Amino acid sequence: MAKMKEVIAQIAELTIEDEDGEECEVELEEPASAEELSDISENIPLNAELIDFYLTTNGMLLFSDEIYDLESLDYDSENGIITIHEWGNGDFTCIATQQSKYPEGTVLFMNHSPDVLVPIADSLSDWLLKVVAEYQKKGRLLHPADYFRSPQEQGLYSHVINALRGRDCELNG
């Protein structure tokens, strides 16, 4: 697993041309303070990688996708997941905590409900690198529903449709 600070340093200066030909960049925020992290950790169990992320940047704009700052995190203690990114349609990207049925640190796609989770990456740093690679190749991050329209397309979330086949969820209609 790549070290978070190294990953952020690697992607911090990147720009891409999005699918509309517009230039997009990575925008970092000021790092969270130790006090802010301590305060949030009283209610949200941050793993070491998330702590490193927030000590480096308190959220970010990853081209067109916002990674939440500390104040915007949402912790679902019943399912052991922390919401870090929103798709804008009721779907989210989450991180598994020790209380989750998934390995701690796993990045998950949530289709409207914590009952509908699909693993996407083993770690936040791995997910960030894969998101950047998809933006560089396609000009955007494809949502799982995009693979209905273009089933031959491959990408970070292309396996979600098959993983949810037969389950009661929004993606299945």
Identify the notable features of this structure and list them briefly.
SMI1 / KNR4 family protein; 28% helix; alpha+beta; 173 residues; SMI1/KNR4-like; 23% strand; Knr4/Smi1-like_sf; Knr4/Smi1-like_dom; four-stranded antiparallel sheet
In words, what does this structure look like?
The protein has 173 residues and is α+β, with helices and mostly antiparallel strands. The chain has a single domain, classed as SMI1/KNR4-like. The chain is 28% helix and 23% strand. It has a five-stranded antiparallel beta sheet. Strands 1-2-3-4 form a four-stranded antiparallel beta sheet. A hairpin with a 5-residue loop joins strand 8 (107-111) and strand 9. Helix 1 packs parallel to helix 4. The termini are far apart. The mean pLDDT is 90. Pfam families: SMI1_KNR4 (PF09346). InterPro entries: Knr4/Smi1-like_dom, Knr4/Smi1-like_sf.
Give me the CATH fold name.
SMI1/KNR4-like
Order of helices and strands: HEEHHEEEEEEEHHH
User: Total number of β-strand segments?
Assistant: 9
Distance between the termini: 36 Å
CATH superfamily: SMI1/KNR4-like
Strand-helix topology:
Layout: H1 4-11, E1 15-17, E2 23-28, H2 34-41, H3 48-56, E3 60-62, E4 65-67, E5 74-76, E6 81-86, E7 91-96, E8 107-111, E9 117-121, H4 124-138, H5 146-149, H6 160-164
Helix pairs in contact: 1-4
